[in-house]
Design brief:
The protein has about 100 residues and is mainly α. It is about 40% helix and about 5% strand. The longest helix has 16 residues.
Length: about 100
């Protein structure tokens, strides 16, 4: 999804990730998620649903700071999103930094 939002990412010299292109099954999973969310009265944005669909289709965990994925998780049959705010991050101890 990052490739669509920020196409220049593939030219960034420190980019070490892979690019995942959604397939038909990912769209079907996203559609089913949206149906479940509509039933709950909580429809979500297409892009977030597709990201979730890709993760679910591949059996991947989804770590994000975007709280919308917690809502999507209410309709998800598989992996749950781990939402983490910047305030939740525990800094390393001083002894760990000196090693």
């Amino acid at each position: 999804m990052t490739l669509v939002e920020y196409p220049k990412i593939i030219y960034y010299r420190h980019f070490s990730g892979g690019v995942v292109f959604p397939v038909y099954e990912d769209y079907i999973v996203a559609h089913r998620l949206q149906l479940g969310l509509i039933g709950l009265g909580k429809p979500q944005a297409f892009s977030d649903l597709l990201v979730a669909g890709v993760a679910i289709s591949r059996g991947e965990d989804l770590a994000t700071r975007d709280r919308d994925f917690e809502v999507i998780g209410e309709a998800a049959p598989g992996p749950r999103a781990t939402s983490q705010s910047s305030n939740d991050v525990t800094p390393p101890s001083p002894t760990a930094q000196s090693r």
